[in-house]
């Protein structure tokens, strides 16, 4: 799966695969004309050539067509004698003389060969190569999703949606989402390990192990086939296809698969809950339809501002998952994957990607947006440790073992640094009249007798980061310093407190007109940080509360 993750990357790469023209269907001879038809075969037994160019020249005119997926071509021609040539890239052309009579059908088959010599084929093994069967959405119905921001951020590219897949064989499942499938052969060998004389590879595909096999994919060494692989599009979900792989060059064409390799394109991965734009409560229960036995499911839980940011990850073999998340709006999608190895030593993988969905978890009025703000379980989670400018020789600690958030820094060697913890948030304060912050804080030690000379250094501080829709940030900060210290930066919202004494702080940020103005222009709360910065210091915080109304 890791190879596929690198190929499809959360998080997000798009395979550009060309669609296919609909196959020609035989028709009756047109009045006053004759019909030339036949099949274009490959030199490998039981193979036909798709999209071979067929050119008939005679009577001073040229007529063209191409072969369909059955290898059949059809030309309606005036009576006469024609030189008929069949061309296909990387194959040798073949020309035959054909006589056409009015209102009659002439059948003429062609077999295309490869190469110019009859020498032995280079020895190459497909062992450790990857044959991937993939199913994914072809498009997103933005009316169903109804996320204005995503319309402006090229959601198809961000989420790996392949709009270039041909929709003729698309299977429409649910929710305005179409799916299509394809097969990709990725070679294990680096390009410099491919034996000399091999000019490229071809993939013949059939819906039956008995064939016939249609040439649907090819790649030359000149086109970086080893790095890019060979992609075959316009396939159907949840269907077994059989593949034969050949190498070609001046030596001709040689089959690399002893037996046809079956590969299944998986079912579409259909999300069940949360439904799109659903209002959910904690904990969030995720569910989706099973792809079958042996599949693993993984995918990110994302927030969106100017880009997508992953804050949690689903990883399970079940068809449900439960997560506790901060209040806010989220987006999610899944990949289901299954690995196996073929008798030829080829790695086979099925991957199915779901469509993209959103859900909302609004905070109840007055509820605490901070998770584990009282540290009553003696654990930091979901808080994460944050260290800035901390050196190897520094001593530091961040923990909640005493059921409070405690931080300490020592051996600073007169060099400033930050030690603390942060929690990611995703809260929209638009239209809110209250943004309330409260906490209990204590300072145990402070090396400096002032708030320093580098913009402000405080043994205890709180920062709340707000963003606008363009990702521009505003930082609200509240800083604490020991009583008797010199305050050089009062603009940092500094309060002096006694040593070793818990101090309760509470404020409605919207009561300060300047702060309220900045919040209104930067309405999204993205992160809270609690800790200290400066030289040596020690502090703690408890009962951290953040609410909006």
Assign the CATH architecture of the domain at 384-548. Sandwich
How many strand units? 39
Q: Number of helical segments?
A: 6
Radius of gyration computed on alpha carbons: 33 Å
Helical content (DSSP H or I, runs of 4+): under 10%
Q: Major sheet: size, sense and barrel closure?
A: 11 strands, mixed
- N-to-C terminal Cα separation, in Å? 45 Å
Low-confidence stretches: 1-29, 140-176
What is the averaged pLDDT score? 85
What is the chains' assembly state? single chain
Structural class: mainly beta
Task: Specify the CATH class of the domain at 384-548.
Answer: Mainly Beta
Task: Assign the CATH topology of the domain at 384-548.
Answer: Jelly Rolls
Shape verdict: elongated
What percentage of the residues does DSSP assign to strands (E)?
over 45%
Characterise the protein shown here.
With 549 residues, the protein is mainly beta. Among the domains are: 34-112, Immunoglobulins (Immunoglobulin-like); 384-548, Jelly Rolls, CATH 2.60.120. The chain has 6 helices and 39 strands. Strands 10, 11, 12, 15, 20, 22, 23, 25, 26, 27 and 28 form an 11-stranded mixed β-sheet that branches. Strands 2, 13, 14, 16, 17 and 18 form a 6-stranded mixed β-sheet that branches. The chain is elongated and about 110 Å long.
């Amino acid at each position: 799966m890791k190879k596929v993750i690198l190929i499809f990357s959360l998080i997000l790469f798009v395979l550009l695969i060309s669609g296919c023209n609909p196959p020609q269907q035989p028709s009756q001879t047109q009045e006053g004309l004759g019909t030339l038809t036949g099949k274009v075969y490959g030199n490998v037994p039981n193979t036909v050539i798709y999209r071979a160019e067929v050119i008939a020249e005679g009577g001073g005119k040229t007529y063209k067509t191409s072969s369909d997926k059955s290898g059949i071509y059809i030309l309606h021609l005036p009576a006469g004698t024609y030189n008929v040539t069949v061309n296909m890239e990387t194959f040798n052309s073949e020309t035959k003389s054909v006589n056409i009579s009015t209102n009659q059908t002439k059948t003429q088959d062609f077999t295309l060969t490869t190469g110019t010599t009859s020498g032995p084929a280079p020895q190459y093994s497909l062992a450790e190569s990857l044959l991937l069967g993939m199913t994914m959405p072809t498009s997103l119905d933005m009316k169903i999703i109804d996320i204005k921001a995503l319309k402006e951020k090229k959601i198809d590219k961000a989420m790996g949606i392949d709009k270039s897949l041909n929709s003729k064989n698309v299977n429409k499942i649910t929710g305005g989402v179409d799916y299509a499938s394809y097969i990709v052969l990725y070679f294990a060998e680096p390009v410099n390990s491919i034996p000399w004389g091999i000019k490229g590879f071809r993939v013949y595909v059939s819906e039956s192990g008995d064939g016939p096999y249609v040439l649907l994919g090819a790649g030359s060494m000149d086109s970086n086939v080893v790095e890019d692989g060979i992609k075959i599009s316009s396939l159907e979900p949840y269907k077994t296809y059989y593949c034969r792989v050949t190498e070609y060059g001046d030596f001709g064409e040689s089959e690399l698969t002893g037996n046809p390799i079956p590969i299944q394109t998986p079912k579409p991965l259909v999300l069940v809950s949360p439904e799109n734009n659903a209002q959910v409560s904690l904990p969030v229960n995720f569910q989706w339809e099973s792809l079958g036995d042996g599949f693993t499911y993984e995918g990110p839980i994302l927030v969106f501002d100017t880009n997508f940011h992953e804050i949690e990850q689903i990883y399970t073999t079940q068809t449900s998952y439960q997560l506790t998340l901060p209040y806010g709006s989220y987006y999610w999608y899944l990949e289901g994957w299954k690995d196996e190895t073929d008798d030829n030593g080829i790695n086979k993988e099925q991957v199915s990607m779901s469509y993209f969905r959103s859900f909302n978890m609004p905070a109840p009025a007055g509820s605490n947006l901070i998770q584990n703000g009282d540290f009553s379980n003696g654990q930091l989670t979901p808080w994460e440790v944050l260290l800035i400018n901390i050196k190897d020789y520094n001593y530091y600690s961040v923990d909640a073992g005493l059921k409070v958030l405690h931080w300490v820094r020592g051996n600073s060697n007169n060099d400033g640094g930050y030690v603390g913890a942060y929690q990611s948030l995703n809260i929209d304060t638009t239209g809110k009249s209250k943004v309330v912050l409260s906490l209990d804080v204590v300072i145990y030690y402070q090396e400096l007798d002032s708030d320093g000379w580098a913009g402000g250094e405080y043994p205890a501080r709180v920062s709340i980061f707000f963003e606008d829709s363009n990702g521009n940030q505003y930082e609200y900060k509240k800083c604490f310093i020991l009583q008797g210290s010199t305050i050089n930066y009062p603009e940092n919202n500094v309060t002096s407190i006694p040593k070793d004494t818990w101090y309760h702080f509470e404020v409605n940020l919207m009561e300060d007109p300047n702060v309220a103005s900045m919040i209104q222009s930067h309405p999204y709360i993205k992160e809270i940080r609690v800790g200290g910065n400066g030289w040596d210091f020690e502090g703690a915080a408890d009962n951290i509360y953040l609410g909006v109304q």
